[in-house]
Predict the 3D structure of the following.
Amino acid sequence: MDALDRIRQQVEENPVVIYMKGTPQFPMCGFSNRAVSALKECGKPFAYVNVLADQEIMQSLPSLANWPTFPQIYVKGELIGGCDITLEMFESGELQTMVAEAAGE
């Protein structure tokens, strides 16, 4: 399975997934840290992919999503954006609602 197929499978199988540098426990950049903190505050489970540990995904994802930077957050298979958009959505309450709906609530 090539990287694009793996990405498609990940976003289809996980209601919420963040492609980030590092892990939720050990983010490796400030943007990933802030975005994953907002997701944690939503109180629902989410998946993650450490793009530093998977260079094929790191190289392929920006072209698939037409989004050049990390982190990238997907909810129900759709890219919602990166760090800034995620934080804006969190502050407005939109992220919490979106994540809860993706979790089936």
